[in-house]
Structures are given as C-alpha cells and as structure tokens.
C-alpha cells in the first residue's frame, strides 16, 4: 500500500502548499511514484501549483518528474475513491489539507502514516497546538492537537499503525532571537507531552513566490537553464534536503 503523507494545520499562511509541492516533487525526482490530492476544495493552491507545472512542461516541451494529481470524487465520501485510484500506481500519496477544520481534513488525518504540520515561528501559530499562560507555561493541547489525538485513537481502534507527526518551523527569522528561543523551548516541552517531532522548515524566500506560476520547485532550476544558483537558492535546497531526511520515510534514499 502507498505511504500516505498528510500536510495539515488549521491555519492559513503557514506554508502548507509550498511544503506539499516540494516534498511531492522531491520524491518524484528521486524516482518514486507520487500522487497528490488537494483537499482545499475552495482555494486549491496545491492543485493549481501542479496544474501550472503540467502546463509549463507541455508549453516548453520539458521532461520534469512530477506527481500525479488525483481528482476527488462526488458524493458523501469523495476521498476514498480518489485514494483507491492513486494507490494502484503510487508509492507515496500526499494530501494537502485546508487551513480550517473540514470533514475531508479530519478524514485525511486518520489516514496519515506521516503528518507534517507547518507553522510560522510565532506564538500566534503555536496557539493552534497548545494553550499557554501569560507567563509562557504550556497549559494543555489546543484544538488542532486534540483533533490529531482523536485521529490517532481512531487509527488505533482500526488496527492501523501510529502517526509519525513532524511539526515544521517555517519562516525561522534571523531576528528576534529571544522570541525564537522561547517558541523553540515551548515546542520541545509540548512535543514530549503530545508526541510529535520538531524540525526546521523553509525560511522566507522570494523564490517560492516566483516559482508558483510555472509550477516549479527549487530542484527544477538547473533543468530549465539556471546555470548558477544564488546562495539563497542553495540554502533553500539544503533546507529541502534536511526536511526529506527528517521525514524518515520508508526506503527513501536522498539523491539530490
């Protein structure tokens, strides 16, 4: 069966679609068969990202490894038939969830073998994971963490394996070091209580916004004629390499 990766967080603007696109495309470029489903039926950022890629590849007559974009079905359960179709031909399936609580997102979390939760490195995003006192003490899990806990319980009852949960600290700034340390300390404390791992994600870079209209990722730049990468682009590629390594996906050897 395909290994299911869910990218979820009940807050917009945390980098879910950028993370989804780069993880899915990195796996495809390493030779794995990868499927993708965009569960944000309204905005469809991940879906449009992939559609932009297909259009650009066709227009420029390029051969870039790409994930397969699945299509949600109709009716009360649009997810199951889409997954069934992708599982027949994929090693990995990546589900990009909306930045809100929906039935589709809740169902996706119960299916996750690996869960990636991107968050901006601030206490505003941290509040989605846990409630804190004014003094900075973690009081207990918040709404999203409770939903993940419920998904874990449902998987246990069904005899499925555990969810490997990775919280990704995106947009780690070079400034405000004191606040960054406080967020990091709070995350480490919370990770031991509710069971997730913490990793550094993607820094804020203009390149991510520039790549979207063509559906490209950092790993495609040399294939489209970019002979010399900037220091920022090289650093961003290393961030992606570190992320793939942190995910510790089954039988994955990093080749970029």
UniProtKB/TrEMBL annotation:
Organism: Paracoccus caeni
Origin superkingdom: Bacteria
Family annotation (InterPro entries): DNA_Partitioning_ATPase, MipZ, P-loop_NTPase
Protein name (database record): AAA family ATPase
One of the Pfam families matching this protein, by short name: MipZ
Organism phylogeny: Bacteria, Pseudomonadati, Pseudomonadota, Alphaproteobacteria, Rhodobacterales
SUPFAM superfamilies reported for this sequence: P-loop containing nucleoside triphosphate hydrolases (SSF52540)
Signal peptide interval: none
